[in-house]
Amino acid sequence: MDEHQAPDQSDFQNTPLAEMRNITKNFGGLRALDSVDFAVGRAEVVGLVGGNGAGKSTLIKILTGIHPFDRGEIFFEGRRVNIGSRQDSRALGIESLYQDLSLVGSLDAVANVFLGKEMTKRYLGLLPLLDLRTMEREAVRILREQLGMDFSARWEPVYHMSGGERQAIALARAIYSEAKLVILDEPMAALGVEETKRTLAVIRRLRSNGISVVVISHNLEQVFSVVDRIAILNRGRKVADLPVRETSPSEAVRLMVHGLSATNGAELAGQVGVGSLG
Amino acid sequence: MGILLLALIMATLRPEWLGMVNLRNVLVQSSVFVILAIGMTFVITGGGIDLSVGAMTGACALCLGWLVKFTNVADLLAVVAALALGIVLGTFNGLLITKLRMPDFIVTLATWIMYYGLVLVVIEGYTLFRFSPTVRFLGDHRLFGEIPMPVVTALVVVVVGHVLMKRTRFGRYTIAIGGSRKAAEECAIPVDRYKIYQYALSGFLAGVVGVIMLGRLNAIHGLVGQGFEIQAIAAVIIGGTALYGGVGRIWGSVAGAVLLGMIANALTFLGIHYFVQYVVSGIVIILVVLLYALLGHRQEAYR
Hints:
- The complex is a heterodimer.
- Chain A is of the alpha/beta class.
- Chain A is 29% helix and 26% strand.
- Chain A has helices at residues 56-63, 86-92, 109-113, 132-146, 163-176, 193-208, 220-226, 249-258, and strands spanning 18-27, 30-40, 45-50, 71-76, 79-81, 94-97, 120-123, 127-130, 181-185, 212-216, 229-234, 237-243.
- In chain A, a hairpin with a 2-residue loop joins strand 11 and strand 12 (237-243).
- In chain A, helix 4 packs across helix 5.
- Chain B has helices spanning 2-11, 20-45, 53-70, 75-99, 104-123, 133-140, 149-167, 169-179, 181-186, 191-217, 228-238, 250-269, 276-295; strands at 128-129, 142-143, 147-148, 219-220.
- Chain B contains 13 helices and 4 strands.
- In chain B, helix 2 (20-45) packs across helix 8 (169-179), helix 3 packs across helix 10 (191-217) and helix 4 (75-99) packs antiparallel against helix 10 (191-217).
- In chain B, 73% of the residues lie in helices and 3% in strands.
């Protein structure tokens, strides 16, 4: 399940960026994940879909270190890793953005981008004070070059801004932290039409900057419009993992709901989960 | 906040009240509350509250008085010790809140009563009188013969407070912790450590005020500092800092403290009964907060 990932991407290596093998997770008597394989290639956008309780959140929480798993292995950049906490995942370059975005509403955009990692300058040779000017320049640069959004002269508190803008700021923070893999959990849930288009554009931009993205979403139309590959979970098992060109939203829905591959197209290059629903 | 300045100007419209002597009085009386309000601003912005500042003021003043009267400690050292006590008491607050995970309100309520009780235990019903000029410096001295030290101190504290809030990690993290503790934790900000700093600062400033009070009164008794915590909190709220944290208005707190001081002063000037001041102050608080609500400022943390 390794070398044949995302064949249409131009990777500098063929090993995936992140790889979860055979992950099993139980919560007491409930099997949340059953032998799930999930991999993300370099500069690849992968969609992770499934109904409620399918296990998407659990899988991601395992990848970001919030939950331990019972069986399986995780590899990052080819090496086996042990992700025991959010710090661990962050240290590897895995950043996740949840719906509440973890921004401080009363601070401005620049302050939020640098939150926790402020730059300081020594004034009068002694006191380390915040280097506001440099941070502003950096933040504006990141937002413009990497995300395609113009934020110059926007010093208002973040709570004034729209959902899409706030998301861009959260993403800028992840980029400044040199994230290699960004996980977006329902990124377009609270956005209108225009902002959704912008977010999708931002995701594509991230990919062209070499950052991999995992998108969890209920909206299959949106997912299909931006991802390279889609992984479908159903009741804790992966039932399909296909390049997006080889399937369709309606088939995806079928797989999500019924967990069976209704067409043989699904047995091709990707993994079909051992969904023994018989 | 502009409204506050207007209110200040309005209050100034009583002619006889504008005499230099009286203005100086107002400033001196206000400066004590300004200093406490700055410390309180950091605590409240960080999402907490410090009910014990009044008691800490009394404790530090007592410490100073006691050291001077009953030990051979040098005057200057005694002042330093009193300030250090403020830091210690404040840090104690911070530790209880963070390590024991107890709500700020409860902890500082308890320490308020505790410190107040300790003061009374030590001094019982007595009053200590007559202190040396060195000891009274911060409270009584006049810079260049004209400017009272409390005002100077208050100004210094305000400027430092502004820089701290806007230009240092401490200030920014304080705002972050109060605005969204979850976000702050996600960004690996050591929340507990900064909360302790906030309370330590509050304690230190209470110590400063304690020393000032001893200088001004030239006496120390069990009731010094009583009611200060109420004034400080009121000043901060009037000043626009949201009660649940996340917004830190230093200059607002200054205006709030000065406004309260002016109200007290003006009412005294007009010969109105002392206790009525409390009623008026209370009404002012309600009006100001209502005004804020109408203008769209919320008292809750912004998400």
